[in-house]
Amino acid sequence: MTTAPAPAPATGSASVQSTDDPPYAPPYQSYVYAYPHKTAYRELPDRPALRELWAGEPQHALSLYLHIPFCEVRCGFCNLFTRIGGPDGLTTAYLDALERQADAVRAALDEGARFALAAFGGGTPTYLGAAELERLCDIAEHRMGADLRAVPLSVEASPATATADRLAVLAERGTTRLSLGVQSFVDAEARSAVRPQKRADVEAALDRIRAAGFPVLNIDLIYGIDGQTEASWLHSLDAALAWQPEELYLYPLYVRPLTGLARRGEAESPAQWDARRLALYRSGRDHLLAHGYEQVSMRMFRRAAAPQAGVSEYACQTDGMVGLGCGARSYTSRLHYSFDYAVDATEVRRIIDDYVATETFDRAVVGRAMTPAEARRRHLVQSLLQAEGVALAEYRARFGSTPGEDFPAELAAFTARGWLADGADGSDGAGRLRLSPEGLAHSDAVGPMLFSPEVRTLMAEYEAK
Ligand SMILES: C[S@@+](CC[C@H](N)C(=O)[O-])C[C@H]1O[C@@H](n2cnc3c(N)ncnc32)[C@H](O)[C@@H]1O
Ligand code: SF4
């Protein structure tokens, strides 16, 4: 974690830092969509059998996640586990491996196991052709037993790969939420983010997606791109709003090690960039609130009265996520596990090649044990970062205590910064512990402050590859 001087206030008013003020916490430390982060996972020397890991776990409402680690391009900002292209039948070999893994995982679950949610993520699932997407759905339905037409199914897509034939397959198989990565409607900004894409192609993709009739369209946008101004940001937001998406995700740009943008020079100081991202966040949030959207979390906005048809970013509050594919995580109440993780292209290719060459998938190889103390942190992190906050009664029912009793130092630090909504022990009088608007704006600082010392150390020791 780096320290930097306090950024200039977004409003332009003078700010005076008194000696009693808490130290500056950079607002953009990490996007905590799951706790603990994969960089805290390590090789599991005993390689526990999946059958043992899943024995005794509640399995009446599992989540199913299938990961497709292929893209047409590698965007300059992206550190997701993915590679460019799938040459020489690699996508076929990957689907073959997914089938083997699905069989092994299904055999480890109870006979009565049921899935309540499903998602295909990436990478870019729609990198697969129409026939391959049929096969992917067959794996979820016939091998895993998920009834895709009866449960919410969310699928990620990029504009160029959202072709009519692929969308038709996804719609017919029961996709309820189609999430499109747009990032910016301004061609110069897409270029600057190293995302080769033309606005006309984005508009055409949105037209095809709306024609396919998915109940929920989500659009991903990024703020903080070099050259992006408040006016150009609002222009992108308006271009997105013209499609009346049921959901919008506004992502602050991160430049992470080993990505294309990380190899470029810095155009502004870290503090200036923090201040610009915070200002763009505020104007974007206010714009969406004024256009009838409600804020679900720092990143997520939902059109009022829109259906909830997907797996939201914090939907993993309960245990029981079954991930298939080499970048997918799985969660039981006692262990979070996955495969090896990398960003560097050569390493990603090696891990995918190892995955497709694997014959038996009946053991967990990389992961992190979930202790009762970590389960409390996880619950707190994942619910506090949502606008609706932590339901205190739910927390007490699960853990027999309150967040104030379990995390006094952390909550005091948030209070000192004005990051908690009003209320005695931080509760708002409605039985919830919630972030204030400033706290929500600083979600990517709040989350890391709740990491346990052990997880913090593991993440710091992790060597990016
Ligand atoms: C799996 S992608 C979406 C689907 C598809 N692959 C695409 O790019 O169109 C997930 C989203 O994460 C966001 N994202 C990824 N890396 C980011 C970064 N470094 N900074 C900000 N947002 C990022 C982008 O908005 C991206 O659309
Ligand atoms: S942003 Fe999407 S298309 Fe670009 S590299 Fe990442 S996963 Fe692939």
The helix/strand class is alpha/beta
**How do the strands of the widest beta sheet line up side by side?**
10-11-9-8-7-6-5-2-12
Counting DSSP E segments of at least 2 residues, the number of strands comes to 17
Query: Which value, in Å, is the CA radius of gyration?
Result: 22 Å
Please work out how many helical segments DSSP would assign: 16
Helix content: 25-40%
Overall pLDDT score: 90
Largest sheet: 9 strands, mixed
**Anisotropy-based shape:** globular
Low-confidence stretches: 1-16, 312-317
Cofactors and ligands: S-adenosylmethionine, iron/sulfur cluster
Calculate the terminal CA-CA distance, rounded to whole Å: 18 Å
Our estimate of the beta-strand percent is 15-25%
Could you explain how this protein is built, in words?
By secondary structure, the chain is of the alpha/beta class. The chain is built from 16 helices and 17 strands. The strands form 4 sheets. The protein has a 9-stranded mixed sheet. The radius of gyration is 22 Å and the shape is globular. The structure holds S-adenosylmethionine and iron/sulfur cluster (SF4). Iron/sulfur cluster binds at residues 71, 74-75, 78, 80, 82, 122-124, 158, 181.
